[in-house]
Description:
The protein is of the alpha+beta class. The chain has helices spanning about 5-15, 30-35, 45-50, 60-65, 85-105, 110-115, 120-130, 135-145, 155-165, 185-190, 200-210, 215-225, 230-235, 290-295, 335-355; strands at about 5, 40, 70-75, 80-85, 135, 165-170, 180-185, 240-245, 250, 270, 305-310, 310-320, 325-330, 360-365.
Amino acid sequence: MSDTLSRRALNRAMLDRQLLLRRSKMTALEAVEHLAGLQAQAPNPPYFALWTRLHGFRQEDLASLLLDKSVVRIALMRGTVHLVTPSDALAWRPIVQPLYDRSVLGNTQHGPDIKGLDHQEIARTARKLLGERPLSSAGLGAELAKHWEGVAPSSLMHVARALLPLVQIPPRGVWGKSGQPTYQTTGDWLGAEPDPAPSPEAMFRRYLAAFGPASVQDAQAWAGITKLGDVAERLRPELRTFRDENGRELFDLPEASRPDPDTPAPARLLGPFDQTVLSYADRTRVISDEYRKVVITQNGLVKGTILVGGLVKGFWEIKTVKKAVSVVITPFERVPKRDLDTLESSAHRLLAWAHPNAENPSVHFVL
């Protein structure tokens, strides 16, 4: 009979593995690998993610890793851009490739335009073009349209993005830099192609190390693919199993940390798109279904959130008026004064870190 883990026990395990019970002395590179990558749909969220998790984190600590190719920005889990180590990019892209294969014709905007075309030929042509020089989405689409007249450049780019392991190369993702993404394949940027014999088992174990204990459905929600139940069954002899309060089976690494549920959880500011609110099928270990509908907007944006007692209890935003910059914190419910004080102090430190030249930085609560 499997032990039952309470929702609070699952919360504390997640916070510990996500470096949110206490700030870590890991390097930025160690943290990116430990956390199984960082959400990176927008350039700055990975920086906020590391700021709230690491002691003394500086923007240049991560920017330098992008510039020297120690980390890369690439579309991976759930069809979204992640910031990962090169080894994870090469190991994981083939595993999640079925998601991208389905998206080629399944996309309602582009599917009709590319139906009947040789998609592999489009990918081969795109690879050749990117081998000559990096190109933006618009640039690559325009070049491809020279070979497929009458087809929308954006639809041709959709095929290339789905079928090729495209890296968003710097300056994209470098703090303080701007501009549209420019692409190269992993072969051109890293000098290596995706793993021809990838291990879903290794990927499943990495997910558990960063997010467990978790169900098969949780892992599938994180990865954006199905059939991980077969992977879990192959790993079962090596894993521990539990049940949650609803009777769902959970898997975990035997050696992984599972702190006492009564372990205190400090109030925290989580950045936009933080993976803690995106990496489970059942997200109630960190956010209620009611609050999730407010934090994650209909067009897929994910607000910065506040953790109180380990749970999402509101959101925060940075607002700029001329040179005046403020953090506005909106709790969803009453928050103890000690936690409000902690959040206010954290917000001032965040402003000093993110906007060191701001005039009259301030913190406001919408209570």
